[in-house]
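ok, trying the design again with the full structure, not the truncated one.
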């Protein structure tokens, strides 16, 4: 698990989306498992934008990019370049 994925996981745990002991796999769907909903996704996007000093365009917030820790992490890495 890379540092961005760990940071996302810590955010989800600190905001009560996940139990402190829970650790979804990198490819596990966060929406299908009920970890995150549309409001949670907006909170996560806001957190990522402020933490990583990036702007996340609405058009990239798709299930392919923002449904797993791996997808979110890869999206953030691409936007940081």
């Amino acid at each position: 698990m890379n540092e961005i994925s760990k940071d996302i996981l810590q955010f989800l745990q600190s905001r009560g989306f996940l139990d402190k002991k829970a650790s979804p796999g990198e490819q596990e769907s966060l929406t299908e498992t009920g970890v995150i909903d549309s409001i949670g996704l907006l909170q996560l996007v806001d957190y990522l934008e402020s933490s990583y000093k990036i702007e996340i365009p609405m058009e990239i917030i798709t299930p392919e990019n923002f449904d797993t820790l791996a997808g979110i992490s890869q999206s953030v890495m691409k936007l940081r370049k």
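Keeping the full-length input from now on. The CA atoms of residues 2 and 73 lie 8 Å apart.
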